[in-house]
Amino acid sequence: xxxxxxxxxxxxxxxxxxxxxxxxxxxxxxxxxxxxxxxxxxxxxxxxxxxxxxxxxxxxxxxxxxxxxxxxxxxxxxxxxxxxxxxxxxxxxxxxxxxxxxxxxxxxxxxxxxxxxxxxxxxxxxxxxxxxxxxxxxxxxxxxxxxxxxxxxxxxxxxxxxxxxxxxxxxxxxxxxxxxxxxxxxxxxxxxxxxxxxxxxxxxxxxxxxxxxxxxxxxxxxxxxxxxxxxxxxxxxxxxxxxxxxxxxxxxxxxxxxxxxxxxxxxxxxxxxxxxxxxxxxxxxxxxxxxxxxxxxxxxxxxxxxxxxxxxxxxxxxxxxxxxxxxxxxxxxxxxxxxx
Length: 340
What we know:
By secondary structure, this protein is mostly beta strands. It is built from six helices and 21 strands. The relative contact order is 0.18. The model has no long low-confidence stretch (mean pLDDT 93).
């Protein structure tokens, strides 16, 4: 008889990615240990991709790769509603992204475009950003200015003036940005949490004059949605009774006022925010897994009387088989992401 699946949250070792536009805020703002003086643009918190698979950092599964665990325990980790569509591909990719110098002007394809351009079964990408630390020059480049056409953009690109073709918006801590496929975009001087489809297909169109990186201009121009400029930012909404998690997590009375919001709700994932000081009860959900990122504060998850400490900058996967736990917080903010 096999041993029962351990009731623990899974925390993974970060996969750090150097980028020419990165900085060191992953260390100063999010507590990551960065080697040397290199510039890091991304910390992959939960990943299951060829060449980039998260490895468990602690607990009974320490040292085990996420893909190997999913192959052995698909229902226990993914949940009964998600495991049936497993097919070897984890549905989400979660990162912390630190943009110091301007991010390359880029676009992500839709599922339909990616299947044709990259091959059957290759997904497109929709992603959401939650701004955690905005610098004095923080800005978002998103969508084409009114009246922009492919011909005008191509001419500006040839002159090195592609940046002038995009709408520019200031960014502040707490801002929410949804980036649908086909939306041309870039950013500068900002650190954000990124929740997205499990895809790393990005078409770089212009890199602000930097040399040495491959551009995918033809694919990028074909993938752009030329008919919309897109909204700059999203607005959070109060959690409503029909949301899946409404009855699953509740802040205890006497713990102070808790604030729960829906940040993003799209076809690929839902992203919620929970801020509170004190204690909350998580009932557990056998139907699906949840990814929980600590955006602020520190404290612990208590499962079967055992405390699993968390602090700002850490990300956990709650397996479907984990069941309930007590969430303790000292002025913390947790981001909860799941497949609807």
